[in-house]
Amino acid sequence: MPDKTLVKRYILNFHERDFSGIVPRELKVKTLPGRATIIVGPRRAGKTYYLFSLIDKNTPERYLYVDFEHPVFHPMTPGDFIDVLDAYRELYPEIKRPVVMLDEVQAVPDWERIVRYLLDEGYTVYVTGSSSKLLSREVATHLRGRSLTYTLFPLSFREFLRFKGVEYGGREFYRNLTRINRLLEEYLRFGAYPEVALPPEEIKELILRDYLDVLIKKDVLERHRVKNVHLLNELLYFSLRAYSKYVSFDSLYRLFKGRLRVTKRTIANYFAYLEEAFALFLVRRFGRSPKGRIVAPRKLYLIDTGLALFGEKDLARDAENAVFLELMKRYSLKPSVEITYWKDEAGREVDFVISENGKAKELIQVSLRLDDEKTRKREFLALLHASKRLDCKSLKVITLEEEGVEDVSLYGMNGRVELIPLAKWLLEGERLISNEGEV
Ligand SMILES: Nc1ncnc2c1ncn2[C@@H]1O[C@H](COP(=O)(O)OP(=O)(O)OP(=O)(O)O)[C@@H](O)[C@H]1O
Ligand SMILES: [Mg+2]
Questions:
Q1: Which ligand sits nearest to residue 46's alpha carbon?
Q2: What CATH number is associated with residue 75?
Q3: Which atom number of ligand 1 is nearest to the Cα of residue 45?
Q4: 115 lies in the same domain as 250
Q5: pTM score of the predicted model
Q6: I need a surface site. Which of 100, 131, 195, 216 has the fewest CB within 10 A?
């Protein structure tokens, strides 16, 4: 049971904290009465700081922030939380109900009971913690119908520039273009974890190495009590080299079976663990046939392009990965939108199909340089084929520099293709991130 005096000192210390260095994030959460707002996401994405950013700096005393990993709250049971509320009330008798923010909730067994109690009493409740135990799947079972879950990713390019203090809106984009392009290179190379944005390069690498180690050790190995550690490491390093490429469990199985004790099921399970820990994403092929969806190879993207420093770096693949992550952010509040890739029998490929309720809305190709005639034709032709098949007229190629609109006509197929530089495309998404259509 926590010591009340220590709890009071903890609460007062928190209210005296300096919140001035916190950069606002783009994620906009809505609170609904009777539902807890849960923030999930990869480790170190900024979930705790995100909670801090929601605090009104003029009235911090209206917030009760509890970090359950703080020694003051150790050990703790759901019943003990009444004492924490009492301690708060004795300090601030005039405030009827503070906004309650629960961090590192996984440290308290049965923490959902605290949340249900607070909701029943009419409190506004925010919850976050380490992704390893606070996965949407678990939260959904324990707080069924009583929560809204939001995902916080590492920084978008817009947020990254904000961290760097660089303006990019309207005319500023053109004024700061040289700087923005240089920062885009840094963004692709070292990725977008908030803590990695500011320090010098050698420190960035050390931080990223630490993040990768903790992610694997805590969120995958320990959490799932993985037996075949060697295989897991092999799959991880394969992923760090094969990002923005196809992965097929069958071919991995053939690759490993001579060398390791392995089954196809283990490979699929380990990839599922890596996905659950937000280390990577496996994107499906667009298609209506359920069988095709299951057996087609997936395309692999990392949660952060900086992690690829420990695999095999490639600018074109960094760019494609960054586009994928931006699409995830843009559509994370729209569960009816799906991101897939497209490929036909002749091997023609389109990197991203954005579809809503199964209907393709936009086709995006990422191809940094189109100067080479053959490349240009290949990318356009794939877009036209997909456009015809999927009956979708919104076609886009994300390039490094080329910009414009081109009316393309090939083999009797026609289409209008928009070419847009990566920096510009990454920055334009602001208006697309909103709460419209959520819940
Ligand atoms: N909005 C922000 N403004 C300034 N710095 C930030 C911001 N968000 C995150 N950071 C930096 O990144 C670090 C990690 O952020 P934070 O602790 O919020 O991540 P987390 O998602 O809660 O991580 P964990 O899963 O380990 O609890 C912070 O210590 C801080 O240095
Ligand atoms: Mg945290």
A1: 1
A2: 3.40.50.300
A3: 21
A4: no
A5: 0.94
A6: 195
